[in-house]
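Technical annex, item 7. During the second reporting period the consortium partners agreed on a shared format for inverse folding records so that results from different sites could be compared directly. Each record opens with the tokenized structure and is followed by the designed sequence. A conforming record, contributed by the partner at site C, is shown below for reference.
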């Protein structure tokens, strides 16, 4: 949507983009204290809408943040914001902050959680990378320990991911692989990871310390429907080095091939057949 007419949902109202502001005392800003979602819109329909809203409320519950409206109101608010901005194919960013408080950490001294919905267009990676695949590195920054801040919570505190992302971009790697505290493969900074080995699709389980991606679930469902065996299992970096194929999934990235990790070519260094088939199937599915 263009600058002048873009409407942002803020606490029950659609306001002009310029009027969509929150307090500098908001704990979302001061401490990354809040939760969010990123959701795609395909052909005017919000993709896997309930799944995203369910995850949002679960994230909020985990941080003891009470979202001031119920799920049905939230679903309606997202639809309303998408429609008001004339978004047919785009992206929704839903943000719930803790609200304003004192400069201290006590959540009991905060009030008015802010409910923010932005509907916009999106372009993440150039088309060329979907055809030729990403070349990525492993970051030395490990994924948050699940007992410190669970990666299952989609919180506004994304510094762990940003630290790894910096390592990636410094190395001209547009994504970066993150290992967990046990040295196992977790996920990338904003995407889940899959490999194909001997025809079997493999991805790290939830307890590897990952965000349970909505796209990850869709990819597993579509693969199973296509008769591909899918297993959630512990993976080491070595498994990726010797994989036949590798790809990432995420709301923004969709399904994108990875053709090298840490300078090791994966398979023959080109996007593999299972990856290409799943990507194609994904593109059909989102518009069904
Ligand atoms: N992992 C992380 C850390 C992410 O930020 C995202 C993007 N939300 C994903 C995985 C992919 O999740 P989804 O498919 O739900 O977008």
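Designed sequence (site C submission):
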């Amino acid at each position: 949507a263009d600058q002048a007419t873009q409407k942002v949902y803020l606490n029950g109202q659609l306001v002009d983009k310029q009027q969509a502001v929150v307090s500098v005392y908001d704990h979302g800003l001061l401490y990354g204290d809040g939760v969010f979602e990123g959701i795609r819109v395909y052909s005017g329909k919000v993709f896997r809408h309930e799944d995203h809203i369910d995850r949002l409320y679960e994230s909020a519950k985990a941080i003891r943040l009470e979202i001031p409206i119920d799920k049905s109101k939230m679903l309606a608010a997202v639809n309303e914001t998408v429609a008001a901005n004339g978004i047919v194919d785009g992206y929704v960013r839903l943000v719930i902050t803790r609200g304003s408080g004192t400069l201290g950490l006590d959540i009991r001294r905060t009030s008015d959680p802010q409910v923010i919905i932005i509907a916009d267009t999106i372009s993440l990676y150039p088309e060329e990378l979907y055809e030729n695949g990403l070349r990525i590195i492993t970051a030395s920054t490990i994924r948050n320990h699940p007992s410190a801040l669970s990666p299952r919570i989609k919180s506004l505190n994304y510094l762990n991911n940003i630290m790894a992302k910096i390592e990636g971009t410094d190395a001209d790697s547009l994504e970066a692989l993150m290992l967990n505290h046990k040295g196992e493969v977790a996920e990338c900074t904003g995407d889940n990871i899959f490999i194909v080995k001997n025809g079997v699709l493999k991805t790290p389980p939830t307890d590897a310390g990952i965000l349970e991606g909505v796209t990850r679930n869709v990819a597993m469902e579509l693969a199973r429907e296509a008769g591909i065996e899918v297993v959630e299992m512990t993976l080491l970096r070595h498994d990726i080095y010797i994989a036949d194929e590798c790809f990432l999934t995420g709301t923004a990235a969709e399904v994108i091939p990875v053709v090298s990790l840490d300078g090791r070519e994966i398979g023959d260094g080109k996007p593999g057949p299972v990856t290409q088939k799943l990507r194609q199937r994904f593109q059909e599915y989102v518009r069904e």
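The radius of gyration is 19 Å. Helices lie at 27-31, 49-62, 71-84, 127-132, 159-170, 214-225, 237-241, 273-285. All partners now use this format for quarterly exchanges.
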